[in-house]
Amino acid sequence: MTVAPKREDYDVVVIGAGPAGLAAAATSAEAGLSTLLLDENVGPGGQVFRAISSTPVTDRNQLGADYWVGADLVRSLRASSAEVIHRATVWSLDRNLDIAVSVGGASAFVKAKRMILATGALERPFPIPGWTLPGVMTAGAAQTMLKSSALVPDGRTVIAGQGPLLWLLAAQILRLGGRIDRILDTTERGNYFAALPHALAFVTSPYFAKGLSMMREVKAKVQVVSGITELSASGDGQLASVSYVAGGKRETIPADLLLLHQGVVPNVNLAMSAGIEHRWDDLQLCWSPVLDASGNSSVAGIAIAGDGAGIGGANAAVVRGRIAARAAVEALVPAAAAKLAPMATLRSELAKAERGRVFLDTLFRPSPQFRIPTGDTIVCRCEEVTAKDVLDSVAIGATGPNQLKAYRRTGMGPCQGRLCGLTVTELMAQARNKTPQEIGYYRLRAPVKPITLAELAAVPKSGADVKAVVRG
Ligand SMILES: Cc1cc2nc3c(=O)[nH]c(=O)nc-3n(C[C@H](O)[C@H](O)[C@H](O)COP(=O)(O)OP(=O)(O)OC[C@H]3O[C@@H](n4cnc5c(N)ncnc54)[C@H](O)[C@@H]3O)c2cc1C
Predict the structure, then answer these.
(1) Where is the signal peptide, in residue numbers (predicted)?
(2) Closest ligand 1 atom, residue 16 Cα
């Protein structure tokens, strides 16, 4: 049964039912504002709390206590008056706060007085030779299968990369009885020294003890090779082996499954397509929206909360959601804000939740060779464009990602640059001896998610729309 929004306009529309969106929607509904929460997944939870209402993994120790925090957030949301629609993919958002959402293959249009984008993070591309082979996937995809279906690897499995999620997934796979043959840790040795000045904030944050015990749990059961400087996957039409270099020595091991992960980055597509200003963040090596302390963006009426505002993790996402919602309530119905937690309290909670982040960003800074590929390594998976193709285009005059679209169709496939955008920016910056900020990013437009032409054609048209097309 297709559920469409009950109204055409809302005080607050929240996109994304991860920790930030769940908290934001519950907060604005609690203040008595008409609130709509839209999310493309079958149920609430976003990335971190994926399948929280339906997971078959019921032994709480297996996914870990942090996961089950999501159940409380969902409970608070369901207790509120917020209207929630799942399987709802938002494919357009403009400066007038008009939203187009596809639910069950039919598009609906709603208008908001205030928007909160809580569209979260995506895994950073990891373009190594052979990363497009069947049998190679991201750690996040494997975790999605684990959380939603309790599926774990049972063949020869290698996990390669770095970052908190890699260790969390490895621990979760082992707790569910899955198989991991080797972990290849690509954390650069120099990063440990670079991160030292930020260590105090980290060791006094909740991440330290949790991270340490998780790494110990995994290292007790799996061979971990650190200081990986080269990595590639090989096989004839299917993954057969993984080759790596550590300490100057190359080794090749057979593998049926290779899980890659080198951190997460803000999911910028909807925000950028709405015209929100983004800047290159050289600490997190990604594009981050330019926001004020309450998450308000360069487009009036649109705020961004959660990892879409810059990577901060699940705890920070919840507080950022509450701050953005409180700011919306203060703007729309100031008197109703009295019912909510004071902004000063929320800000100190956010500072606590973000404690240790700089240490993590510095320690888990992915190495250039794993971000900026060479030769025949595929950069754009949708259009099968290689690093050499990109450099050849630069050699004949392509100056940035948008010109490269014309030369090579990079970023024009189903993923709309989600899997190649960062790589293209950094590759062109390196080739042209410019900064990523100077090179820029793809110009993103609606639809930001694929919809069928039939659905577009079925969109209700006003007289003005028809006239515009006919006249045009
Ligand atoms: C694959 C993956 C797995 C992760 N697993 C963990 C974990 O186990 N533990 C942990 O601490 N952190 C994990 N993280 C980090 C995670 O980013 C944060 O911890 C946290 O989930 C961020 O919360 P958020 O509310 O900002 O966004 P998310 O939780 O990412 O939620 C954003 C939601 O918005 C939806 N959405 C995006 N665009 C649209 C659209 N156009 N229309 C409709 N819906 C849309 C997404 O599908 C998603 O449901 C993971 C990140 C990724 C990418």
Answers:
(1) none
(2) 34
Residues 138 and 246 in one domain: yes
pLDDT tops 80 at residue 1 = no
Q: Tell me, in angstroms, the distance from the centre of ligand 1 to residue 239's CA.
A: 28
Q: Ligand 1 centre from 178 Cα, in Å?
A: 24
In a domain, 421, yes or no: yes
Using a 6 Å cutoff on CB, does residue 270 contact ligand 1? Answer: yes
Distance, CA of 386 to CA of 168 (rounded, Å): 32
* Protein residue with its CA nearest to atom 14 in ligand 1: 48
Domain around 195: 125-262
- Describe the chain by its helix, strand, coil percentages, rounded to 5: 40, 20, 40
Question: The domain spanning residue 231 has which CATH number?
Answer: 3.50.50.60
Angle at 338 between CA 335 and CA 341, to 5 degrees: 145
Tokens 């119905």, residue located: 333
Lowest mean pLDDT among 26-30, 39-43, 468-472: 468-472
Q: Number of structural domains, the chain?
A: 3
Whether 258 and 270 share a structural domain: no
State pLDDT tens for residues 350-374.
Answer: 999 999 999 999 999 999 999 999 9
Q: What is the pLDDT of residues 170-189, one digit of tens each?
A: 999 999 999 999 999 999 99
| Bridge-based pairing state of the strands 302-304 and 106-117 | parallel
